[in-house]
Amino acid sequence: MNNRLQELTKIFIEVFGDESIVLDYETSSSDIDKWDSLNNMHLIVAIEDFYKIRFELKEIQSLQNVGELCEFVDKYLEG
Amino acid sequence: MPIVILGFFICQKIKNQSISILWLISSSLFFYGWWNTKYLILIIISVLTNFALGLIIERTRSKVFLILGLLFNIALIGYFKYANFFVDNINLFIGANIHLNKVILPLAISFFTFQQIAYLVDTYRGQAKQYQFLHYCLFVTFFPQLIAGPIVQHKEMMPQFKLGRFYSLRAKNLAIGVSIFAIGLFKKIVIADGISVYATPMFDAAEINVQLTFFEAWFGTLAYSMQLYFDFSGYSDMAIGLAQIFGLKLPVNFFSPYKALNIADFWRRWHITLSRLIREYLWDPISLSLTRLGFKYRLSSVSFFLLATIVPTLFTFFWVGLWHGAGWNFIIFGLLHGSFIVIFNLWTKIKQNYPRVKIIKNRHVVNSIAWIITFVSVLIGWVFFRAESFTGAKNIVLAMFGYNHITLSPYLLGKIGPLEEVLLQKGFKFEGMFGNGVLGNEPFTAIQMILFLLVSCLVLPNCQQIFSKYKPYISTYHEAVFAYPKWFFWRPTIKWIILTVFFFMMALLSLNKESEFLYFQF
């Protein structure tokens, strides 16, 4: 699980160009300045691309925090 | 209005929820029919058809029926809202001479059509549960929100209809509801209608090519920005207040939009329920598929930005513009805001690449500059939003940027020393700041009032903040911190009763003047 968080942190840093980003399960879009609806899709697709998975739109829209993001990724990698 | 509340109160005594709901639906339809009985049938057909389609889609998950439903709604709004515009342009461009009788725009058609489109899409995605017919009717027609928003979503309204809270009239809800309503009424009748006398003449003058002065163009536009905000947000407050009287919560539609420090934030604060609708059903799906496309073909950063940011943003804002009305000025308004968003995005990208470069260090200075850029962009957008023709809008924007020279007061002549020479050389003139009289006989009183309102917008808390202890609304904007003194917050005290009565009295005293809700035609 912790591994997943590290991988995601790398993607976040790359997409938002901010080395100082530290993620935990509770991190949400209000904690990261640049994480808004404009950048969200870029982030999501970067994650899809890294794991070679595809989220559903309603999952993306219901996303509350990084913890849920991890769960979605796990769900797709297991299934 | 009091009859509706009284009736609701009686229904509640009977303790039959269906009767209470029926009462509210028929009152809503009554209000709607008051305006135009013919279109009453239209809204009823729209509700019945969409409910039936919803049932079918839920059972079958058939894409065919979803598309049918979308076509039905788009045809409805296409005919009633955009047919004239479309035919006019065809005639203009290919010189045809198609004649179409002027279609009168049905009240609130955008609101009830898009709410139902969202409902059908959610049903197809399996995000809408089986709803009772009466609940559905109330969701669409509920009169406080029907005419000018907020645009409600079924997933936030339907669950409330099941709660007992809704069916009982409570003193607390009544007190809060009436207070919010009074604030909204005051904003609309006293402030918005009051300031409109400084906005309308300027826009009228621009249409007939009057040479507006620099200051007239700026203050006229500023006056309009105040009129529009207080009108529309006042209306939304009234809707929230009314709904609260019946124990229902509506989503917040405005969160001090003129405090925004960037244009993206402005759209998170302005007409929030429209922005989120557009975001969920237009922006998200389009930008998701285009971003995937960009990743798939490993585009370079420039083409990626073009495909994944510029295209979806302009496309989305094109529709935001058209949503507001069938006219080229609205399309320009939309595209203008789309471009602002693109530029803002580009700017954040540039900042990302040079994180260490900071030209100005002082946070307050940076924020002030950011606010000015944002607010001026918004003002220029409003010019196109309000002006009746492109020529009118062009005249105003040119005057704002000093095209007609900047004219100062002749009283300054001989009093400012060597500065006079410099200004004359730069093209300034001393022929009076307000030569056309569009700000009335006492332009400086007008300016004081406009600036007073602007400052109020920037320093005062909004309705959501004032009532934050009771949350009589659904939050739609999350502000990190706000520190206002305690007395800003509403409490059931004598002070707030007096204020509420004051708001009502002021509104009633101004009511005899002719008044019109700006947003009725959308």
Automatic annotation (TrEMBL), chain A:
Among the Pfam families in the record, one is PP-binding
Which InterPro entries does the UniProt entry name for this protein?
ACP-like_sf, PP-bd_ACP
Q: Which residues form the Carrier domain?
A: 1-77
- The name this protein goes by in its record: Carrier domain-containing protein
Q: Which organism is it from?
A: marine metagenome
